[in-house]
Specification:
- With 565 residues, the protein is mostly helical.
- The chain folds into 4 domains: 207 residues, Growth Hormone, Chain: A (Up-down Bundle); 53 residues, no CATH class; 230 residues, Growth Hormone, Chain: A (Up-down Bundle), CATH 1.20.1250.20; 28 residues.
- It contains 21 helices and no strands.
- It is a multi-pass membrane protein.
- One of its GO terms (cellular component) is plasma membrane.
- It is found in: Membrane.
């Protein structure tokens, strides 16, 4: 007798088919997919909204801290006479905020989300305070690294808590707000950074986190006993893959040091740079072997890479996000050094890139929902992104403002399409228990690409800049003028013109490399496999969604296949 039920009919509790479906269907384990029904029902609606507002605020601060320095970096680095190392203001935060994300995911399983979230906020606040009071460049970068650790916790734990508070059928609109605040942070960060730096002090880019973060802590503590705090009973401290975290962190830091120092502080052929590249590169296969053989719960489950779209999405994300972070970091510097604009104006001049990126990422989500297409939008976005990046090669001291902004708009529109479609394509191949790992890996590749991008593009700019300045006998004695916006404005007019021309050429050279990165990302997208999306979600007569019914039918098909195969 067959256990299969007619399509669309509800399963009977305790039936054999229900047990089979539970065994063969996707277990709910991730913050993105976990059903929070019942976990947050002790909270009143206004309490859920208040808690959500505080969580969204914390996540907004973590996202804002990634972009607020894009316009203030030249001023901050100039104050410490370290303009040629300005990339580390952003990189020091990005490294720790990337590396520690898996750790906080495991920590929330062990100690609960509430305690882990409070710890993350306190670390973020402490790092912000130390950054705002920094007295030297090493102090500044170390403080940014501490803030990045807290930021990693904010980005991860907040998503877990929302999944526990909100039923799955209502979670979409809450998550939509969370993603919208990322776009808002991308837009406001450079502008706020420019305003604080120009009208007050760059230190207020970090002081601002203290009262806002403090308010979020007060709200969370006031609702502490009512907020859900689900823990996994069988998870212990030994389940956290500390070995993998250490190996990966050391490898990333060593490789980034090599990219940041090569041709700037040390020649590429120097023992220092070669040693960093060799050791950092050698740790990558060590990490892979370690993850395959040692931890019971590896920081990066390697089995997910058997899926074609996962490999495509992570590769595409890595290359394209190298472009996003690099442009966000160096476009304001270009406008300050080459065009002579202020920090505030240079922040506003980043909007032609960031705003289209944010808007198009929302638009393509609507298009995917309406059409059910993913690959066409992925490929179209890649082509537009490649066109925009290629046009940006033309940007230099002689380029009028209008074409500069038009080129940035084209590149931003294309990049927004790529972001949304990559994630959908990767998640479409998630099998039992893989959704959280695949989602984490795509986000991880984005963050890692951003870190590498800032270092690589900064190294290109500095190498070309030094070559032009040192190669000219007029500007060579004023090489330090290229390390500070203030010093440049104090240099002779002829030297200023040479440095501005040199930075324009350096930016154009960076965009050649950037276009090559975009091309590599686009080529990887051509290997995307079919992306099966279900029909639009509709409510049945009994309140059941059509996609829930389809999920049940799909699970039944897996049971039939398992029994017959």
């Amino acid at each position: 007798m067959s256990d299969a039920l007619p399509s669309g009919q509800p399963l009977q509790p305790g039936s054999p088919i229900e047990a089979d479906i539970k065994e063969h269907s996707l277990p709910v384990t991730s913050p993105e997919s976990a059903d929070g029904d019942g976990l947050g029902h002790s909270m009143k609606p206004w309490e859920i909204h208040l808690a959500f507002a505080s969580l969204a605020t914390g996540g907004f601060l973590a996202a804002l801290d990634q972009t607020i320095t894009s316009t203030s970096m030249p001023t901050i680095a100039s104050e410490f006479h370290s303009l040629n190392e300005q990339s580390w203001i952003a990189t020091s935060y990005l490294i720790t905020s990337t590396v520690f994300q898996p750790f906080f995911g495991r920590a929330s399983d062990l100690w609960g989300c509430k305690a882990t979230l409070i710890t993350a906020i306190l670390l973020f606040e402490f790092g912000s305070l130390m950054t705002a009071t920094a007295q030297n460049y090493v102090w500044l970068c170390c403080a940014r690294a501490v803030a990045g650790i807290g930021g990693a916790g904010l980005l991860v734990v907040i998503m877990i808590m929302i999944s526990q508070m909100v039923p799955i059928r209502e979670r979409g609109r809450y998550m939509g707000v969370m993603y919208a605040r990322l776009a808002l942070a991308n837009v406001l960060g450079p502008v706020l950074g420019g305003i604080f730096t120009h009208d007050v002090s760059w230190r207020w880019c970090f002081y601002i986190n203290l009262p806002i973060g403090g308010l979020a802590i007060v709200i969370i503590l006031s609702l502490f006993n009512k907020m859900p705090d689900q823990k996994k009973k069988k998870v212990t401290l030994a389940d956290i893959d500390f070995g993998g975290i250490v190996i990966l962190s050391v490898s990333v830091v060593l490789l980034l040091l090599a990219l940041a120092w090569g041709g700037v502080i040390y020649p590429w052929s120097s023992r220092q740079v070669i040693a960093l590249l060799v050791v950092g590169g050698a740790l990558i296969p060590v990490f892979v072997v370690y993850e395959m053989r040692v931890p019971s719960t590896p920081i990066i489950p390697l089995t997910m890479f058997r899926h074609r779209n996962v490999v495509m999405a992570t590769t595409n994300y890595f290359f394209t996000n190298m472009v996003v972070y690099g442009l966000a970091a160096y476009i304001p510097t270009y406008f300050q050094l080459v065009k002579g604009d202020t920090q505030l104006v240079s922040g506003l001049e980043l909007l032609p890139y960031i705003l289209p990126l944010s808007i198009s990422s929302v638009v393509v989500g609507i298009l995917i929902q309406k059409t059910g297409w993913v690959r066409p939008w992925l490929w179209a976005g890649g082509i537009v992104n490649l066109l925009g990046s290629g046009l940006c090669i033309l940007i230099n001291q002689r380029t009028p403002r209008g074409p500069e902004f038009a080129f940035l708009i084209i590149a931003g529109v294309g990049m927004g399409f790529v972001f949304q479609t990559n994630t959908v394509a990767a998640q479409s191949q998630a099998e039992s228990g893989e959704l959280a790992s695949i989602t984490t890996m795509t986000m991880w590749s984005k963050s890692l690409g951003g870190i590498v991008g800032i270092s690589v593009q900064g190294s290109i700019i500095q190498n070309v800049l030094n070559s032009h300045i040192l190669g000219n006998p007029v500007s060579a004695p004023y090489i330090q003028a290229s390390e500070s916006v203030t010093l440049l404005r104090q240099a002779p007019v002829q030297v200023q013109a040479i440095v501005r021309m040199a930075y324009g050429e350096a930016f154009s050279s960076m965009m050649i490399a950037t276009t090559a990165l975009v091309a590599m990302g686009f080529l990887s997208s051509l290997f995307a496999g079919p992306v099966p999306l279900g029909k639009k979600s509709k409510r049945g007569d009994n309140g059941t969604r059509s996609d829930d019914i389809e999920l049940g039918n799909a699970a039944q098909e897996k049971v039939r296949a398992a029994k017959t195969g």
